[in-house]
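To close the section, here is one more complete example, presented without commentary so you can practise reading it yourself. The ligand is carboxymethyl coenzyme *A.
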Amino acid sequence: MSETAQLKIGDKTYDFPVIEGTEGEKAIDISKLRDQTGYVTLDIGYKNTGATQSAITFLDGELGVLKYRGYPIEQLASKSSFIEVAYLLIYGELPTEKQLADFQLHISRHTLVHEDMKKFFDGFPSKSHPMGQLSSLVCSLSAFYPESLKSNQSEAELDLSIIKMLGKMATIVSWIYKKSLGHPFIYPRNKYDYVTNFLHMTFGQRTEEIEIDPVIVSAMNTLLILHADHEQNCSTSTVRIVGSSESNIYASVSAGISALWGPLHGGANQAVIEMLEKIKEDGGDTDKWIKKAKDKNDTFRLMGFGHRVYKNFDPRAKIIKKACDDILEKLGIDDEVLEIAKKLEEVALKDNYFIERKLYPNVDFYSGIIYRALGFPTDMFTVLFALGRLPGWIAQWKEMKEHKEPIGRPRQIYVGKVNREYVDIKSR
Ligand code: CMC
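Output:
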């Protein structure tokens, strides 16, 4: 017999179905709650609210498990490539060799952006934050591809919009970097795979051919895979909710980029390095900074620590920590902030404040150290997170459309003034 949940309000009892996910998670389906009782639920920050039923990503915060389409993140990070993971997330299955080659080729044919887009790049101050540029530039793609505005796109049209989104994103990200340096843009080359092409456009020069180090390609693949999806986080929920009003893919992804920017979400990777640098300049006394993080009268938080869902460890952080050691060793880089990060982690993991609140290093704690070793400036870190998260946003947006989900529109409990009479301005 299927399980039900009972709710008693006054002398009335209501039954609600309990639904169970394929990994055993249970939810009380309250979709008829208001109709039946006149009540709504209140769950600020959505800590207890399942917003959808999704078949893309599973994570168990208590056990530290993360899987994309059923495949453990550890296997994907060590065996797969970013583009293969993108295919898996978006289409649900690992591609055959031919499917992967076709996907890569299709994307390569859509990496150019309209030449007029360069005028937008010209318009931004060269020191403006890359995330603001990225969000605007991605939204502006909708102006160049008006067929994406149709809310009833055929499967082929939808697929083409997805391919364009993937192809142009890498070009836009690398051109934002080039713009910050005042260097000429480097055009994509179809002979390269997605990640190599991105590195070619980012670190390449018009004046000479560069060798792209396979160590860097591999590190970049790992980082992008680890960021590729994370179920209903702040930016993904934003993408789904914007898309639920039948906004186009570029507008939806652009909104996700804005949501990712904040330091409590993707912006944490930049904030971590800035914090570590500050601690270094301050003499490297980690105990002092741990004390500050625990002090309720101090606004300082240990950036890169804590997670809304992971209450044991973040499996991505484990992989990144190891990758960080490997990459710095392979590139022969000795980074003092890595030592500070490790010391902070060691102290925090033994401290009751962090133990009681189940605060562990998250994906952003070590990722910035790797990005820096690869040659990226600090303010590009969150943009790289966005590049990695793009397949997840697309997959979730596509799933939301396939499910024909209704427009996202939460309720509220109004607590403002009631029934006031308008007073003429001269009498106030
Ligand atoms: N340093 C010090 N104290 C913390 C931290 C931290 N980094 N994170 C949480 N706490 C404390 C917080 O003060 C609260 O204490 P108390 O119960 O005494 O009031 C308790 O732990 C619970 O915190 P919360 O803010 O209610 O938890 P949340 O689930 O709403 O927030 C978080 C999760 C990630 C926003 C938060 O842990 C945080 O601000 N971390 C630092 C920013 C960061 O690294 N963000 C990246 C997240 S992972 C990348 C991604 O997917 O976006």
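Once you have examined the tokens, check your reading against these statements. The chain has three domains: 4-50, 71-264, 267-374. The mean pLDDT is 95.
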